[in-house]
């Protein structure tokens, strides 16, 4: 039988269960958590952090191209020439 809301709110999970759920939510392995305890980056975390750091630099040129295309479509080439007369 499922616990009631009050039982769920006031229940205290076991620490081992809590750590397992936290590791699953953050996609950590036991080796990653052990490395973090020693103030090191875990073996599986390095590629994730590198990818997260470099991803904006990948999207910057794509964003610049998209803005350029939108401006050229919204304002044809003759539009600015007529405004400067």
Quick structural gist:
The chain is an all-alpha fold and 85 residues long. It is built from 5 helices and no strands.
What does this structure look like?
- By secondary structure, the protein is an all-alpha fold.
- It folds into two domains: 13-43, no CATH class; 56-85.
- The protein has helices at 5-10, 15-25, 30-37, 45-74, 77-83.
Protein traits:
elongated, single chain, mainly alpha, 85 residues, 2 domains, 5 helices
Strand proportion: under 5%
Biggest pleated-sheet summary: none
Q: How many beta-strand segments?
A: 0
Helix content: over 70%
Calculate Rg over CA atoms: 26 Å
What is the straight-line distance between the termini?
Answer: 79 Å
Count of helical regions: 5
The gross shape turns out to be elongated
Query: Would you tell me the overall average pLDDT?
Result: 80
Q: How many discrete structural domains?
A: 2
Give the low-pLDDT segments.
Answer: none
Order of helices and strands: HHHHH
SSE-based structural type: mainly alpha
How are the elements arranged and paired?
Blueprint: H1 5-10, H2 15-25, H3 30-37, H4 45-74, H5 77-83
């Amino acid at each position: 039988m499922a616990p009631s809301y009050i039982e769920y709110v006031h229940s205290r999970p076991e620490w081992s269960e809590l750590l397992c759920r936290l590791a699953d939510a953050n996609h950590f392995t036991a080796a990653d958590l052990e490395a973090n305890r020693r103030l090191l980056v875990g073996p599986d975390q390095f590629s994730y952090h590198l990818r997260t750091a470099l991803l904006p630099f990948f999207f910057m040129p794509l964003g610049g191209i998209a803005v350029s295309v939108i401006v050229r479509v919204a304002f044809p080439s003759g539009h600015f020439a007529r405004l400067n007369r």
